[in-house]
Please model this.
Amino acid sequence: MTQAVREAPVAAPRRRVNVAAVAPFAALALICALGALANPRFLSFDNITNVLARSTFIATIAVGQTLVITGGGLDLSVGAMAAFIAGLVILFLNSGLIDNMPLLIVSAMALSLAVGALCGLFNGVTATVGKIEPFIVTLGTMGIFRSLLTWLAQGGSITIRNNDVRAAYRQVYFGDLFGVPYPVLVILGVAVAGAFILYGTAYGRHVRAVGSNEDVARYSGINVARVRTLTYVLQGLCVALAVIVYVPRLSSASAATGLGWELTAITAVVVGGTRLKGGVGHMWGTIAGALILEVIGNIMLLSNLVSEYLIGAVQGAIIIVAMLAQRGMSGSR
Amino acid sequence: MSPQPDAGQSQAVAEELKNTSLSTQPVLEAVGLSRSFGPIEVLSDVSIDVRAGEVHAIIGENGAGKSTLMKILSGHLAPSRGAIKLYGSAVELKGPVDAERRGIVLVHQEIMLAPNLSIAENMFLGRELWRGLTVDDREMNRRAAEAMRVFGVEAAVTVPVQQLSIAQRQLAQIARVLAVPHRIAIFDEPTASLTPIETSALLNLIQELKAKGVAVLYISHRLEEVKSVADVVTVLRDGKRVTTKPAAELEPVDMARLMVGRDLLALYPPRPPVPTGAPAFEVAHFGAAGFAEEASFSVRPGEILGFSGLVGAGRTELFEALFGLRKGGGEIRMNGEAQQWRDARAGMRAGAVYLTEDRKSKGLLLEETIATNLTLAALDKFQRGPLVDRARENRALDEAIQRFDIRVGDKNLLAGQMSGGNQQKLLLAKMMQLNPRVVVIDEPTRGIDIGAKQQIYRFITALATEGRSVIVISSEMAELIGICHRIIVMRNGRVVGEVAGEAMNEHAIVVLATGVHTSVEGARA
Model:
């Protein structure tokens, strides 16, 4: 249903806009077809669910990033924020404050969301009320969050100590509902929520307006600072959700946690067709973008055609190719 | 003068052109130019020419094909059919740079300056003056100031142009183009955002170009101005040439009739009766930091109050400050209740709206649909739960299209694809979604054609008839005199006077606006 809502405003006047919206999905399908040719195992249920589960972190964060970027902002701090929140959550799990196991894990999740929202709020308020370029603000908080984690971990890593907690929490990443792993449900849920916010609600439209032309938004009586700040808060919540799914996977956090996630997430957003300077957001395109990145990495691992050490180079090439393709399709010379 | 709008008129065209030729060989000729965008032909078989030392005006309603014709002649667009001749020989313009190299320059209607650079830096962009190893800023600033002084504007040539008013930017753009001599100068609505004083300075400048033997093509909606500056007038309608005649043989009213293709009703609707109720909106001792101070005025329900003044008089800035869109302060009362508006939303809640003069960059989201723009300021009225109610939005769109006669073939058009007149109607419709009691409209008819203008005047009058208080800020004195009950004049950031009733005339306004007690010859609307 959200799909239909999204298509409505884009549809009529310029047919090429539609092409741009569909392109990421076409690219994803093409890459999957190539993957199937390269290695039959690619299409196995286990591999597919594995790829989807692994893409959860980037996809979830990228949904928030889509909102931020559509609103004319940028958040470079997400990877460091994820590491920081993961560290705090594990410390909380280790603290022994709560004996009841399910309650402990739910509280840890709530803590994660609260910290994520606060981190986002700090980014948003500093950028809007402080009137500082979001690039600079989040570059600063990126350093702060990463450093806080390193300090909490005293340069090493923070690990879930209690084996019972670890075993119980493991289910969140490795468990499934009717065969569908929880992480995949998280992607789906976050994407549906993101699309609902961006395309269905008045707030989503305000985000687009603010990103498209701040002056027009201001002259239309829209509280630009509030709208923008909220995009960062939502981004923080998305990071927190990603952390909730990430922590049970490795049960530890270190200075290397979430390293480079911000760039991968931004790549996913841009590959998905969202305009980096704001005003145009493609929520489902972002999901396709995140999957493209993960699938390509997966194919490289499976196929041995290209060294897996070159994954970064391939992902870098993708973003450039995607931008060139968009340029070509939008018809500008 | 039998208009021959049909195609296949080349013979007749040649005949007619011969008759209207004033002097010598044409410098630039358009021969049977046509241009299509997709299936739509926006220009068909248009032939005109322009000679050295001649001002050839091209007039027509929006969508008549004027801008398309100018873009073809200046190399911005290639024709679908037809040829361009320069000094009698056919040329193919490969682009605006090629056209400039051949001596043809277009002064754009849209402002095309680098916003972070100063007037001087813009003016010498790509042809900076050097002294030794460094750029000679002092000399460039001096020459830029001199070029601006020609327009009677003491513009700060060293501050970023984004801090200047639209009119100042427009003048800087014209000055930039004229800083280099050309053989053919094309002006696309150069006076749309200028006040009478600057307009008359520009018209003088064009007379100078003419005296130097420059061939001038001139597009304008202001027919009085065309009458005064042009030697020859070509009227376009629906992409076709209706007629070309010496300006001496055409009165503005004839031009308007030829443009529209029918007799125009009176341009201004009957004025609503002078209201007598208590003021709905009162402002006292209000100032906009650096632009206006100590402004006091009030407006009654059903009243249309005009604000006149020269560029830089602080009118726009005063109202932007009132609506919390820039820094300022003072007393505001709505129906006697004290107000303080920190942002536009606060004014809207109190029932007052401000329609910006800059509809392209502050009024509408050009890349969004008409419906999105229409409901943007009043989106909470179109919500059902957290969702935007698209059905209600669509109904509002249909109503607005009907009420404000927004002419679009396709309702899914983007705002940026509409004509200026339709954009202005959309901006008006957008703010009327809030059902305000006080409506401030800044430059309601800038850059729109006469048919749309006439409609806008009717809408404004209708707002007053409905009992709303309307304030119109305009640089066109004629329209203020035509529709307002009273006109307040500002000069250098201060309210310097007010004219009403019989005393409303251009002379009185110019005297107040300039502070100079002489009749200003060029003060044409």
About this structure: The longest strand of chain A covers residues 157-159. Residues 21-328 of chain A form a domain with the ABC transporter involved in vitamin B12 uptake, BtuC fold (CATH 1.10.3470).
